[in-house]
Design goal:
119 residues; mainly beta
């Protein structure tokens, strides 16, 4: 199982970045995909998630109306379009895949990608 994030980097306040997460080794289309971040010196913060079918996105209050999550089940990818970036969006962003079934909870994480918002 692999989740590989990309697209992080440095952006100016008000700018945009697009994160991507490429998945392999599991049935991607059966999993809820999420983005979670961790700012320096702080705990993990859930950012957004998207159901297996890609029809019901959810967002944290701090990113609502600025970030958009999407997925391509044919390509096994999930993206996070981040607009109107703020310095407080600076964090390591992690991709997460989760599925619950009668056999248990399956939970996978990527290695993270750094996003820095600064002028």
């Amino acid at each position: 199982v692999q989740l590989v994030e990309s697209g992080g980097g440095l952006a100016q306040p008000g700018g945009s970045l697009r994160l991507s997460c490429a998945a392999s080794g599991f049935t991607f289309s059966s999993y809820v995909m999420s983005w979670v971040r961790q700012a320096p010196g702080k705990g993990f913060e859930w950012v957004s998630d998207l159901d297996a079918g890609g029809r019901s996105p959810n967002y944290g209050d701090s990113v609502k109306d600025r970030f958009t999550i999407s997925r391509d089940n044919a390509k096994n990818t999930v993206d996070l379009q981040m607009n109107s970036l703020k310095p407080e969006d600076t964090a390591v962003y992690y991709c997460n895949a989760q599925r619950s079934s009668w056999s248990g909870i399956y939970d996978y994480w990527g290695q993270g990608t750094q996003v820095t918002v600064s002028s």
